[in-house]
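Journal club side-thread
Mid-discussion, someone asked how the predicted structure for our own chain would compare to the paper's figures. Pasting it here so we can look after the session.
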Amino acid sequence: MKFAVVGSGFSGSVIAYELSQAGHDIDVFESRNHIGGNCFTTRDEDTNVMLHLYGPHIFHTDNEDVWNYVSSFTNFKPYVARVKCTTKDQIFSLPINLHTINQFFNKTFSPKEAEVFLDSIRDKTIESPKSFEELALQSVGKELYEAFFKEYAIKQWGINPRDIPASVLSRLPLRFNYDDNYFRHAYQGIPEEGYTPIFEKLLNHKSIKLHMGVSFNKASIEKFDHVFYTGPIDGWFNYEHGHLGYRTLDFMPEVHKGDYQGCAVMSYPSSNIPYTRITEHKHFTPWENHESTVVYKEYSRLCEGNDIPYYPIRQVNEKAMLRLFLKESRKEKKVSFIGRLGTYRYLDMDVTIAEALVVAKQTLKVIEKGGVIPVFFVDPA
């Protein structure tokens, strides 16, 4: 069969690879001038530092099958994400852990004492938190919420934390020990030579034809037996019901000598600082040595026009609009909506890869049985 894959991030590249291995022909359409989507990495010409051009990507998963799969394309180096935070004229470790609590309140709590203390200051009147703010107040109380979360959330999302779903905060752990590893997954690492070589191997097949700097034209859909679309779902329908809400990021790079901040990520939750964090990219490859350093100051704002969409907002009005697009989508023939943008969901890399593998496997089964390839392989509602 002849397939079109729109987008060369992990969703599109994994699907293209798996279908090509099964003997099918795939045309991959990528609107940017490089493969890999937001996972694209490249060497800085002046410093030779490996840059995560669209923000840091640290691979973390408990899915052994996904870890083995992605590791088959490159050598991963162990990497532990340790995030620091500048607030209240001090530097703290995130996520909030026993050291953060003791430092913030100038105490020497044991784990049990810290639990008892936080229980005494959290808002117990909130029984079923629905918003970011309610969950924060219920979990850590007003002081920690205002120091670490409130203003950061406003900068990151551009809306009041009372209007942000609780699920956004629920992804962040709270620990009563001194573990400052940002993730607690069994497998954590960063590719030794960056992510781009993974995509080069995924897409290097005689049955895969790459179209770089080319947006897929819906009018050409009849040239293909099926299309796997990983772009914005609202874009497929030319935004006829409006634009779904996304936050985008602006990165302001700076080059310095030596070590700029002593860590990979420094968060700035205070509203008097316009950027949300500074990332120092040579710290994402601690096995390398560089005399100079590249830092990115990261600014969040509403996604507009030709901006790159990063985080789906999924407020009530976005969900209502999404339902309209989903209704339209289910009328489509010969197209499947895949991945973060195609299903308007926040997805980590491992989940993206796992879902792409399922898409490829189920597609091959459908072909074998002479069935119809689904419009959606997961429910994006």
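Post-session note: The mean pLDDT is 95.
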